[in-house]
Q: What sequence folds into this?
């Protein structure tokens, strides 16, 4: 696949029928594509190697892994391992399985991404289109929160959520994280680049502030929204520290947290269930990967070009 | 539909009295403008960039607030009325079409916001599309249209509104020269057919001359002159208007007026007897005649531009550069010759204020 596009790109500028002159460049091209592909393959190896090994190892039984280390190849325990991980109730309380953890992660990722997109759009809309006193100050205050990541403010955040009685709820898991300086900044930059005349035309067309937002601004930002949604979904899915603090009931465990739980809790004095931990890791990776692969085109479009 | 003189009776469609626009930073963009547009009248604001013509248009549209004075539409003061409730429609310079909506939705959007029933919207959109010959593009997005087609869609958006007045903000400046001429005619034809008043902003005096029933020449936030194109061309109220309207521009040069003649460098030419003393004289290139030396104001030929239909002879009268337009095939009578004209064609302006004498 990359081969074809590479050659096409390299060939395009050279006129199609130039006889003998074509031969030499073709040879030179082949060497350069060998080199290019070498670099690409090396990159793929670095990126994919650990994932492949994690997957293949998860198909062995834990004793084999414990004895021989990580394994390449097919262990034959695929079905039983993944069945256990997904469907067998486990933990102290026996009320959580892999499926529930995936569900929790999904709620977390979607809530996180949707919440961030909605809040960012509204914040950016207010900053760009409503010229209230101190709009710029507001923006920079929001922007400066980039300097205060969750880890820095985690104790006060915990205190607030705890005193609101939101521990072990989806609300407590999601809402404290949905304010996003990054998202606000991206949308602000985008809105600023939307021609003023569109707003004026809409005003003449009788659109109030809400209709302008819903009918014009949001459809115009849809690639932007898609891009931010994907990024935020992955970030939300991969949250570890915050869910660890917020949830003590196993019924609210997210899958990223669950992986660690296997290593700690699911074993007695026995060999850790390496295969199950690896299987959970593979499962945890799947939804974000699927989302990125499916929306890749939109994602890149959103970051690279804007339709105005 | 002859140029209106305001005496047609009834309430003017648009009436502006003492309009002033002061921006928050203290800049005065419009410094007290009075004008009106009658029903079906095509008024063109023309002037160089920064003369306040767009600001004035936007004040009519309601996109800029009115600092002082009044804007009335059909007799109603609209200073504090939202643009949507003013019964106006506007074509923007970059058209401002909604890029994510089809042509149909672009036309229908304003009507939907007004809660007009669906069948009525459909009827109006199709009628406007028919009129503008964009019927076959209704399903397309603006991005898939050419400049001229987008222009039509922008006009269609105005037509479906059925407003009291159309506002045009330099709508042709994004088109190439050929298309501009064509769209110019089309706008005029459409406006006549619909009989709706229009205010049109341009910096192009040719557009102003060809489109307008009445031209409003603006300079530095003030009205220099209001009048029918021919009036403005034949009797410019100031040196500014004289140099702005007409191409090539009117020749303006310092001269001594002595009742019935003007004198430059020992030569003289006939002129209106209205003034005496130091004046600025004006003479249009196409009204100037070249005669052998001694028959008028001394003139030295420097270059001749061949335009096919006419020839432009460039030279100097006194210290001022001067252009004479000759018919094709006519040559100047010599390297040094003289300029003269009918007295009625010579304009006299006050040397200091530039006002017409």
A:
């Amino acid at each position: 696949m990359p081969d074809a596009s590479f050659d096409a790109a390299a060939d395009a500028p050279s006129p199609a029928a130039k006889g003998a002159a074509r031969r030499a460049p073709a040879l030179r091209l082949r060497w350069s594509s060998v080199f290019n592909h070498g670099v690409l393959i090396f990159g793929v190896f670095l990126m994919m190697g650990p994932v492949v090994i994690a997957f293949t190892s998860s198909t062995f039984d834990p004793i084999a892994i414990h004895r021989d280390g990580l394994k390449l190849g097919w262990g034959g325990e695929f079905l039983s391992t993944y069945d256990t991980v997904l469907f067998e109730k486990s933990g102290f309380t026996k009320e959580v399985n892999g499926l529930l953890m995936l569900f929790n992660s999904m709620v977390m990722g979607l809530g996180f991404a949707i919440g961030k997109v909605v809040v960012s759009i509204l914040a950016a809309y207010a900053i760009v289109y409503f010229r209230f006193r101190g709009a710029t100050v507001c923006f920079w205050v929001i922007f400066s929160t980039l300097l205060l990541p969750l880890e820095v403010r985690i104790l006060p955040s915990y205190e607030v959520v705890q005193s609101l009685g939101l521990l072990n709820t989806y609300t407590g898991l999601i809402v404290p994280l949905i304010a996003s300086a990054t998202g606000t900044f991206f949308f602000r930059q985008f809105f600023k680049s939307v021609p003023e005349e569109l707003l004026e035309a809409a005003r003449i067309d009788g659109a109030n502030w809400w209709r302008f937002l819903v009918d014009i601004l949001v459809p115009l930002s849809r690639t932007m929204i898609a891009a931010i949604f994907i990024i935020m979904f992955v970030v939300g899915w991969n949250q570890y520290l915050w869910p660890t603090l917020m949830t003590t009931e196993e019924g609210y465990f997210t899958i990223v947290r669950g992986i660690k739980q296997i290593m700690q809790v699911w074993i007695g004095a026995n060999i850790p269930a390496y295969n199950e931990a690896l299987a959970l890791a593979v499962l945890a990776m799947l939804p974000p990967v699927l989302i990125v692969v499916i929306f890749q085109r939109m994602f890149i479009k959103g970051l690279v070009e804007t339709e105005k | 539909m002859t140029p209106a003189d305001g005496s047609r009776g009834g309430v003017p469609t648009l009436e502006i009295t003492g309009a002033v626009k002061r921006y928050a930073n203290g800049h005065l963009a419009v410094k007290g403008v009075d004008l009106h547009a009658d029903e079906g009248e095509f008024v063109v604001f023309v002037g160089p960039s920064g003369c306040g013509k767009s600001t004035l248009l936007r004040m009519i549209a309601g996109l800029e607030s009115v600092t002082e004075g009044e804007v009335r539409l059909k007799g109603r003061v609209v200073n504090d009325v939202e643009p949507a409730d003013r019964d106006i429609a506007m074509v923007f310079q970059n058209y401002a079409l909604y890029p994510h909506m089809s042509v149909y939705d672009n036309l229908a959007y304003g009507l939907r916001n007004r809660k007009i029933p669906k069948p009525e919207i459909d009827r109006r959109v199709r009628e406007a599309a028919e009129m503008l010959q964009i019927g076959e593009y209704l399903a397309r997005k603006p991005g898939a249209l050419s400049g001229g087609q987008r222009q039509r869609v922008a006009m269609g958006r105005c037509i479906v509104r059925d407003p009291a007045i159309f506002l045009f903000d330099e709508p042709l400046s994004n088109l190439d020269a050929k298309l501009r001429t064509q769209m110019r005619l089309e706008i005029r034809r459409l406006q006549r057919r619909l009989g709706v008043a229009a205010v049109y902003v341009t910096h192009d005096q040719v557009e102003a001359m060809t489109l307008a029933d009445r031209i409003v020449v603006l300079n530095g936030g003030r009205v220099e002159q209001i009048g029918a194109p021919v009036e403005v061309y034949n009797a410019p109220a100031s040196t500014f208007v004289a140099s702005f309207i007409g191409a090539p521009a009117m020749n303006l040069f310092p001269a001594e007026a002595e009742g019935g003649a003007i004198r430059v460098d020992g030569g003289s030419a006939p002129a209106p007897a209205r003034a005496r003393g130091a004046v600025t004289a004006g003479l249009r290139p196409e009204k100037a005649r070249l005669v052998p030396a001694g028959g008028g104001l001394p003139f030295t030929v420097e270059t001749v531009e061949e335009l096919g239909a006419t020839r432009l002879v460039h030279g100097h009268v006194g210290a001022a550069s001067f252009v004479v337009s000759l018919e094709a095939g006519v040559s100047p009578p010599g390297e040094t010759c003289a300029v003269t004209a009918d007295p009625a064609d010579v304009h006299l302006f006050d040397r200091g204020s530039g006002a017409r004498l």
In short: Chain B touches chain A through 25 residues (CB under 8 Å). The mean pLDDT of chain B is 90. Chain B has eight helices and 20 strands.
